Input
Amino acid sequence: MACEVYGGDEEMCISRKDSKREWIPLGRPCPRVDLSLRNELAAATAYHMLSETTRPSAPFWLMLNAGSVEDARLSLGRAMSAVKSVKVQEALTRMHAREAKKDAAARKSEENAARERRRVVKGLQSGRR
Ligand SMILES: [Zn+2]
Output
C-alpha cells in the first residue's frame, strides 16, 4: 500500500538522494500523499489539468466521471485549489528545474559522444594515408 518510507512493502517513490536533498528538509521523506477516496476525482482532475497534453480533455473527463453535477462542481473546486496552491506550484517548479538539469546533462553527454565518434573517425581516416 505504501512505500517503505511509510512502512509499506513497495520501493521508495523517489531516490534516497532526492529524498535527502528535497523532502527531508520539508519534514516529509516522501512526496507521496494517499488521498481520501472523497478526493480521488479531484486529484485525477488536477492531474489532468497539470499536463499540457491532457489539459484540454480535463473538463470532459471530469463531467464524464463525476456521478453528478454537484460532484463535478466540488471536485473542480478542489482540483483548482490544488493546482493553484503555492506548495504545488513550488514543487512543480523544483521538479521542472530538476528535469531541465537532467535534459542538459543528457544533451552534453550526447555531444561528447558525437565529438568522440568524429575524433575516432578522423583518426582512422588519417591512419589510412
Ligand atoms: Zn514514498
